[in-house]
Amino acid sequence: MNNLLYTVAVLLIIFWAIGFFAYSAGSIIHILLVIAVIAILLRLIQGRNIL
Q1: CA–CA separation, 39 and 43 (whole Å)
Q2: Mean pLDDT throughout 11-27?
Q3: Among positive and negative, which fits the CA dihedral 12, 20, 38, 27?
Q4: pTM
Q5: Is residue 28 assigned to a domain?
Q6: Strand stretches in the chain, DSSP E
Q7: CA quadruple 35, 39, 41, 45: dihedral positive or negative?
Q8: 39 burial level (CB within 10 Å; 0-12, 13-18, 19+)
Q9: Are 5 and 43 in contact (CB under 8 A)?
Q10: CA angle 15-20-33, nearest 5°?
């Protein structure tokens, strides 16, 4: 489960970067970025390694 959470967070960050540079994804891509950052912060708070 934890590895899956990290994978989803990384994918969301990648999609955000693509959308940010493509200027075609609209505001939904920024919501995905916030979700990814929250997922990474939860992992850090729980004391688990990111990698």
Answers
A1: 6
A2: 72
A3: negative
A4: 0.47
A5: yes
A6: none
A7: positive
A8: middle
A9: yes
A10: 50
Task: Please tell me the distance from the alpha carbon of residue 18 to that of residue 46, in angstroms, as a whole number.
Answer: 29
Residues spanned by the domain of 17: 2-46
**What pLDDT was estimated at residue 2?**
63
Using the predicted structure, report yes or no on whether residue 16 has a pLDDT greater than 60: yes
CB contact set of 12 (below 8 Å; sequence gap of 6+): 32, 33, 35, 36, 39
**Residue 51 lies inside a defined structural domain of this protein:** no
* Position 35 pLDDT exceeds 80: yes
**CB within 8 Å of 50: residues ≥ 6 apart:** 6, 40, 43, 44
| pLDDT tier for residue 22 given thresholds of 50, 70 and 90 | low
